[in-house]
Amino acid sequence: MPDNSAADRGPRPPRISRGGKGRRRKPRERSRRRTALVVSAWAVAAIVVVGGGLAGFAYAKLNGNLTSVDLDAKLGADRPEDVDNGSLDILVLGSDSRSGDNAKYGAEDGARSDTAMVVHLYDDRKKASVVSIPRDTLVSRPSCVQEDGATTPAAERVMFNSAYSTGGPACSVKTVEAMTGIRIDHFVEVDFTGFKKLIDKLGGVEITTTESIDDPDSHLKLSAGTHTLNGEQALGLVRTRHAIGDGSDLGRIKLQQTFIRALLEQVKDIGVFSSPTRLYGLADTATSSITTDKGLSSVTDLMNLAKSVRSIGSNDIQMVTLPVTYDTQDPNRVVPLTAQADEVWAALKADQAIPKSALKNSAAEETQKNDTTPDTANAG
Fold first, then answer.
1. Is 2 a member of any domain?
2. Can you tell me whether residue 353 is helix, strand or coil?
3. Pick from 241, 12, 49: nearest CA to 136
4. Is 7 among the domain residues?
């Protein structure tokens, strides 16, 4: 049984930004798998807010861009109760498919949801909570229907991100619902290429690092200082793992959460809503880049969601990682801390803020507290 105490994790080399020292976990196999940061649901929706009067051809063009999946048809009636308290729960997925333009990021079989966030929009639409689920979390996956119609039986102790490759987004939703007891109202997915295009259309994102970053796996190399990252560089940043923290997915999640905050601020600050031309360009890119459920499969649906959350700023968002601990059989994997995880999901189900007590003793919080991540600033 491995000892995951701090003393056993070796020296803590200096990392980047915000001072302190990163905590290193036991050596882990370097994975070839890559992660795409998916823009949070309300940010994507905000980009496609088209205001009062799109010309008919433009509206039809944006609607035609959208790809959707009928979750209700795939999941059936055996789902958690739909609590009628005015809140919305959205599963946001980042796909690492290597098809099409994504092939240059390396060969992989199928696709996985290497980034997964449960986005809870509170009833008042003035605040939100985001719970990141580490891709390496060992979970009990329910039976899922594959894309060819065959059924894959339920399995124990499988990695969370394998649900997507087993049965697509519907299986990811079903797995999250089994983990949380929360009915997922919507899902949004974006892949590598879509993410890069969105960042480029936004004009890049500004970050400041206090130390250099050099990660051969994500192909990101930055000197210490302030940089405006283009889409390719931003993708490298959110895929970076070995150059920061303890080299695990837990440190990378913190980096992704920090990036999302900067992205949200940028969407507000660069005036996309006051420029119809720029707004349409962003809307065209966003609708071409995402896959949604049927409930968000039109510009009108996305516009209505966006309008309801436009007042939410980065300071109104509580971002946490699912409380986990390192698996005793495999230190390269994590397992949920049952009591704390139940507390997280119960809070969201009751439309309440996640209490700090739910995060106590979580390896994610300890790793992220000791990690040093880039300071991010608004981009122009």
1. no
2. coil
3. 241
4. no
Does any domain span residue 19? no
Query: pLDDT tens digits for 167-188?
Result: 999 999 999 999 999 999 999 9
In a domain, 273, yes or no: yes
Task: Residue 232: give the domain boundaries.
Answer: 31-376
Residue 119 maps to which CATH number? 3.40.630.190
Closest CA to 238 of 284, 268, 203, 199: 199
Task: Report the alpha-carbon distance of residue 249 to residue 364 in Å, rounded.
Answer: 9
The number of distinct structural domains making up the chain is 1
**Quick one: CA torsion of 299, 164, 325, 340, rounded to 10 degrees?**
50
* One-character DSSP codes across 260-316: HHHHHHHHHHTTGGG-HHHHHHHHHHHHHHEEEEGGG-SHHHHHHHHHHHTT--GGG
pTM over 0.85: no
> Both tokens of residue 238?
């959110």
Residues 264-315 have pLDDT tens digits of 777 666 655 566 677 777 788 888 888 999 999 988 888 788 778 878 888 8
